[in-house]
Amino acid sequence: MTTHMIEAGRPATKLKSEALQVLLERGLVHQCTDLETLDRNLAAGPVTAYAGFDATAASLHVGHLMPLMTMRWLQKLGHRPILLLGGGTSRVGDPSFRNEARPLLGDEQIAANISGIRHSVERLIDFRGEDGALLVDNADWLTEFRFLEFLRDFGSQFTVNRMMTFDSVKSRLEAQMPLTVLEFCYMMLQAVDFLELSRRHACTLQIGGSDQWGNIINGVELARKGDGKQLFGLTVPLITTASGAKMGKTAAGAVWLHPEHLSPFGFWQFWRNTADADVPRFLRLFTELPMTEVLRLSELQGAELNEAKKILATQVTAIVHGAEEARNAREQGDRLFAGEEELAAPTHRLDLQHLADGLGLLQLVVHVGFATSTSDAWRLVEGGGVRLNGRVVEDPRRRIAVGDLAAEDQLTLAVGRRRKALVAFD
C-alpha cells in the first residue's frame, strides 16, 4: 500500500479532483494512503467519507473542527459525509496519546452525550434530503457481535506485533502506564467500523486526526483482506497554537461547540483573542473565505491585524452557531471592546465542582481565552491587568471560591478594558 505524507501543502503530482485541490490548499491534508487513486475516484464522481467521534463528552470542541471542516468541504464539493458517533466504542475508550485510560461511561451518559454531539454538528454538516449527510452510531453493529464470533471473524486479521508499533500504544508502555485489553481492542473495533460502513453505505474514505493513522490503516487492511476492496485513509494535521498548546484545549477544559457549554459570544471571543502568528493559518483552516481574501488578511500588520481577528472570529462563529449569532457576537464584541456595554448573559459556564476542586484564577483566565497559558496569565496578573468582579487581583495564586459568586452564581472576569467575561457556575 502506497502512503503519502503531505509536508508542504502540495502533492507531488498534478491533481484531477477539485476536492483534494481545496483540501491541500487549505492545509487540511497531512497523510493519505493512496493519493493518486483517491484523487481519481474523487474526480470520477461522489465519494462517501466518514469521520468518527466518540461520545465521551456532551459536546465536540474546536479541536474537532479540523475533521469537521474537511467533511464540510467534501460535502460542498459534491461528496457525501458520514459522521459516525461512537455509541459502541465509547464503552471501551480510545488510548490514543493519552497518559491514562478514559473512565468507562454508562449507557445513559453515552446517550446524553450523543444527543449533545448531534446538536454540535447540525450547522456544520447538512443532513437534509435523501443525499444529505448521514449520522450513524457504531453501536448499531458493535453491540450485535458475540465475542466468539468476533474473534473468529476478525481476530486473525490483527497481530499484536503490529499494534505494538503504534505510537498510541508505545507512549503508554514507555511511560509504564497500564494498557488494558479493553483499550487494546479499540483499534480492532475502529477497523471494523470502517468495514461495516463500507458494506452498509459504500463508504470508501476515512478522515481522522494524525494520531489515528494506525487505526485507519487497520481498517483499510481489513477491507482489503476480508472483502477485496480498496479503501482510503486521509488524516488532518494535529494543530497546535503559536504557544505550542494543543488546539481546543485550555487549562480548565475544552472550547466547546455546543452553545449550552460555551455561549456564541464566548466562542467568538476565543477566536478574537487568537495570537497574531496563528491568524493566517486559522483563516485558511477554519473559514470558507476565498483564498485571495485569506492571503490579503494574512498580510495585515499591527492594529489592522485586529480586524482580521474579528473577521476570523465572525466567520468561524457563523459556521458553528449560524450567521445571526455571529453578527450578534461581533456587535457585542465591538461595543464591549469600546467600553460601551456590560455583559447581560453568561459568556462561559463551568460546573460548580470546579470550585470544589480548587479552580485557580490563572486557570480561569486561560479557560475564557484571555491568555494562552498559565504563565501568560501570571504575567497579566502581575501587571495589574486582571479584574475579578471589578477589582484588580494582585495574587496570581488566587483561588476562586463560592464567596466570589454574585447573583445567580456568576462572576465577572476582565483583562484590560476590552476583554470581559461573565462566568456562570451550574
UniProtKB/TrEMBL annotation:
Its EC number is 6.1.1.1. GO terms for molecular function: tyrosine-tRNA ligase activity. Keywords: Aminoacyl-tRNA synthetase, ATP-binding, Cytoplasm, Ligase, Nucleotide-binding, Protein biosynthesis, RNA-binding. ATP binds at residue 249. It is found in: Cytoplasm. A motif ('KMSKS' region) lies at residues 246-250. SUPFAM superfamilies: Alpha-L RNA-binding motif (SSF55174), Nucleotidylyl transferase (SSF52374). It holds the Pfam family S4. It comes from the Bacteria. L-tyrosine binds at residues 50, 186, 190. Its main location: cytoplasm. Residues 361-404 form the RNA-binding S4 domain. A motif ('HIGH' region) lies at residues 55-64. It catalyses: tRNA(Tyr) + L-tyrosine + ATP = L-tyrosyl-tRNA(Tyr) + AMP + diphosphate + H(+). InterPro entries: aa-tRNA-synth_Ic, Rossmann-like_a/b/a_fold, S4_RNA-bd, S4_RNA-bd_sf, Tyr-tRNA-ligase, Tyr-tRNA-ligase_bac-type, Tyr-tRNA-ligase_bac_1. Belongs to the class-I aminoacyl-tRNA synthetase family. TyrS type 1 subfamily. Catalyzes the attachment of tyrosine to tRNA(Tyr) in a two-step reaction: tyrosine is first activated by ATP to form Tyr-AMP and then transferred to the acceptor end of tRNA(Tyr). Homodimer. This is Tyrosine--tRNA ligase. The gene is tyrS.
